Amino acid sequence: MIKMSLKIYKKLDLTGQSCAGPLGELSGVLEELSPGEAVEATLGDEATKKDVVAFATKKGYKLVSERNEGGKFVVVIGK
């Protein structure tokens, strides 16, 4: 995880989605990011969180932070 100060470009609530849904929506938003921007995604389960983090890092984005908020997983991914 990388500690950096980024502007949150968009917040996504992906808690009701599973399988490829969150990855597809997140992929489109990540492509819109400019350097110094990030997306905050709220996910409904740990398996989806792991998939999202793996997908984003494989594509060259950086995991800025992750936290558990009452059973929901919040990740911030930056460019």
CATH hierarchy, class? Alpha Beta
Poorly predicted tracts of residues: none
Shape: globular
CATH homologous superfamily annotation: TusA-like domain
Straight-line N-to-C gap = 13 Å
Strand order of the largest sheet: 1-2-4-3
- Counted by DSSP, the helix tally is 2
Radius of gyration: 11 Å
What share of the residues lie within helices? 25-40%
CATH topology: Translation Initiation Factor IF3
Task: Based on the coordinates given, report the CATH architecture.
Answer: 2-Layer Sandwich
How many domains make up the 3D coordinates? 1
How many beta-strand runs? 4
Main sheet characteristics? 4 strands, mixed
Helix and strand succession? EHEHEE
What fraction of the residues are assigned to beta strands by DSSP?
35-45%
- What number is the mean pLDDT? 90
Broad structural category: alpha+beta
Characteristic key phrases:
single chain; 79 residues; alpha+beta; Translation Initiation Factor IF3; 4-stranded mixed sheet; 2 helices; 4 strands; 32% helix; globular
